[in-house]
Amino acid sequence: MAGTFELFVDEESRIRFRMVMPDGHVLAVSGQFTDKRAAAAAIEEVRECAGTGLIRDVVLPAPEIVRACPHQARHAARRGVRVLGSLGAA
């Protein structure tokens, strides 16, 4: 079964839409639109693009986390490594 697009008014009184799965889970929420016609046009664009859209990963890799003595921390910071102190705080 297909999901649905719901039009709604946000807290700034702007029109937005959300894509809702059949189980009620919200899959995506749009940006703001000035009117329903603009939101409906964007929904049509999503329908056209989503089925054939490619996936592009732009997530930065997570920093490496190590425990180090204070003198090691200087060297690790130069390499971009996040160092945890003795209590586990960053």
UniProtKB/TrEMBL annotation:
Superkingdom of origin: Bacteria
Start and end residues of each DUF1508 domain: 15-56
Annotated Pfam families: DUF1508 (PF07411)
InterPro entries, alphabetized: DUF1508 (IPR010879), YegP-like_sf (IPR036913)
Protein name listed in UniProt: DUF1508 domain-containing protein
Lineage: Bacteria, Bacillati, Actinomycetota, Actinomycetes, Micrococcales
